[in-house]
Amino acid sequence: MSDLNNDLRLVIDTGKYTLGNREVVKSITENKAKTIILASRGKKEIVEDILHLCKVADIRVIQYNGNSLELGTLCGKPYSVNVVAVLEPGNSNILNEEYN
């Protein structure tokens, strides 16, 4: 089992990703997203929409245990990030690992 923080950091450094609700929804509908990472305690209706789109598109969703500020900091952003879409994993194993 791997650490989600380390794998996500590798995606940020070596892969391709997108941040934010609108951009993530766009990447799901365009079939570009491979995995979605959701921060805990996001807006209920937005989370439900993203979860529904992921279920329809058969895209894996990983629940990040931290809040949106912690996810934003991990992504190197000075603001909160509710959701991240992994487009290309880079050097990480985020597409194959299981996280608790």
β-strand amount: 15-25%
**Going by CATH, what is the homologous superfamily?**
Ribosomal protein L30/S12
Q: Which parts are unreliable, with pLDDT below 50 for 5 consecutive residues or more? A: none
Overall helicity: 40-55%
By DSSP (H or I, 4+ residues per run), the number of helices equals 4
What would the principal axes of the Cα set say about the shape? globular
**Oligomer type:** single chain
| Biggest sheet: strand arrangement | 1-4-2-3
Give the averaged pLDDT, no decimals. Answer: 91
- Counting DSSP E segments of at least 2 residues, the number of strands comes to 4
CATH domain topology: 60s Ribosomal Protein L30, Chain: A
Question: Judging by the overall fold, what is the CATH architecture?
Answer: 2-Layer Sandwich
Q: Order of helices and strands, N to C? A: HEHEHEHE
Radius of gyration: 12 Å
What is the total number of structural domains?
1
Task: Please outline the major beta sheet.
Answer: 4 strands, mixed
Task: Give a short summary of the structure.
This protein is α+β, with helices and mostly antiparallel strands and 100 residues long. It is 41% helix and 20% strand. Strands 1-4-2-3 form a four-stranded mixed β-sheet, with helices on both faces.
Topology (elements, then pairings):
Elements: H1 4-14, E1 16-19, H2 21-29, E2 35-39, H3 44-57, E3 60-64, H4 68-74, E4 83-88
Parallel strand pairs: 2-3
Antiparallel strand pairs: 1-4, 2-4
